[in-house]
Specification:
There is one protein chain. This protein is of the alpha+beta class. The protein folds into three domains: 3-171 and 349-354, 2-Layer Sandwich (Uridine Diphospho-n-acetylenolpyruvylglucosamine Reductase, domain 3), CATH 3.30.465; 175-257, Alpha-Beta Plaits; 261-323, Alpha-Beta Plaits. The protein is 28% helix and 25% strand. It is built from ten helices and 17 strands. The strands form four sheets. An eight-stranded antiparallel beta sheet has the order 13-10-12-11-15-16-14-17. A hairpin with a 2-residue loop joins strand 11 (202-210) and strand 12. The radius of gyration is 21 Å and the shape is globular. The relative contact order is 0.14.
Length: 369
């Protein structure tokens, strides 16, 4: 099936659904089905919208269709010595470009290089009326008014079907090194805050405990001279580059043993807090900390939601019930923190404007929709 035919069929499917008020569940590779509230509706696949439509390595811009596998896009960029610097997680599966944007999730380097939305230049969207809309373009300074293309990042498919997206890409850093430091959580946070105020080529960090001992891993990227000077200045144990790269990839895709929840009752919680937040007084096992202290993963039962969210708010952040335990088939605890009244009004107004019939991923972002 040609891409044009696939897009035409999606548009007709949406128009038919709108006429019958039939909800649709947009699905790319299905690797992030666990994320967000459980959506309602018939599956609408973007799998046939594949391929790169435009790639200008010298301009650092690539345009890809929604259903293109993320692995294929990254392979094409790697051939030109370029990458998606925000390291979107793939969770070990066949994630797609539209799923990457719709979920809005970023990997280990996010605190240093920016998030998914910072690299979205433009997008083509099919709204709830079956209209094909284009926003943004292929250069950084192309937006007048509301930046709709970037609003799509993290919208979880509630605004429409992303048909195509243009992304800013960057060259692969010429040098990289990973340093390891044996330390506890408080010392790790202190070191990260201290290093953050220095002109160091910090790219990613990760602290967690293994067999009762805490370790902080620091990834440096940039010019070779800057990376080598930072290694000399910081000390620590320098890790083998190939082995360290595999471990960072495992962290990115949550394949590290720390993330395994097994058949227990603990859920995976993501707390987004200021990097300067102190150690949080949550019971249970020590967290895994990323983003120089800004993203902290905890394992705790879903019924501890109120306490976890209160602790996150007290620290100046918020908490997301990221992944339910396998034993929880009900999912009664809200996955996301409640929005403030003004923000919720804006969110609902956007959803009504783009999807007036409430067709797309009903309930996935706001449980009451």
């Amino acid at each position: 099936m040609s891409t044009d035919t696939a897009l035409h069929q999606i548009i007709e499917r949406i128009r038919t659904a709108a006429a019958a008020s039939t909800p649709l569940c947009i699905r790319g590779g299905g690797t992030k089905d666990f994320y967000g509230e459980a959506p309602h509706g018939e599956v609408l696949s973007t799998a046939d919208l594949t391929g790169i439509t435009s790639y200008e390595p010298s301009e650092l811009v690539v345009t890809a269709r929604a259903g293109m596998p993320l692995a294929e896009l990254e392979a094409a960029l790697a051939e030109k010595g370029q990458c998606l610097p925000f390291e979107p997680p793939r969770f070990g599966g066949n994630g797609t470009v539209c799923g990457m944007v719709a979920a809005g999730l970023s990997g280990p380097a996010r605190a240093s290089v920016g998030a998914v939305r910072d690299y979205v230049l433009g997008a083509t969207l099919v709204n709830g009326r079956g209209e094909l809309l284009t926003f943004g373009g292929q250069v950084m300074k192309n937006v007048a008014g509301y930046d709709v293309s970037r609003v799509l990042a993290g919208s979880l498919g509630t605004l429409g079907v992303i048909a195509e997206v243009s992304l800013k890409v960057l060259p692969v850093a010429p040098a990289e090194a990973t340093l390891a430091f044996a330390c506890g959580q408080a010392d790790a946070l202190r070191l990260l805050n201290e290093w953050g105020g220095r002109p160091l080529p910090l790219n990613a960090s990760c602290w967690f405990e293994y067999e009762g001992a805490g370790a902080l891993y620091l990834r440096l990227r940039g010019a070779a001279a800057a990376v080598e000077a930072a290694c000399t200045h910081l000390g620590g144990e320098r890790k083998n580059n190939a082995r360290a790269a595999a471990e960072w990839q495992s962290l990115r895709d949550q394949q590290l043993p720390w993330f395994a929840t097994g058949e227990g009752t603990d859920a995976l919680w993501r707390l987004s807090v200021p990097q300067t937040a102190p150690v949080l007084s949550l019971d249970g096992a020590a967290p895994l900390i990323e983003w120089h202290g800004g993203q902290r993963w905890y394992k705790a039962r879903p019924d501890q939601a109120a306490r976890i969210r209160e602790i996150a708010r007290a620290a100046g952040g918020h908490a997301t019930l990221f992944r339910l335990p396998r034993s929880d088939t009900q999912g009664k605890v809200p996955r996301f923190d409640a929005l403030s009244a003004p923000v919720e009004r804006i969110q609902r107004a956007l959803m009504r404007e783009f999807d007036p019939h409430g067709l797309f991923n009903r309930g996935r972002l706001l449980a009451s929709t």
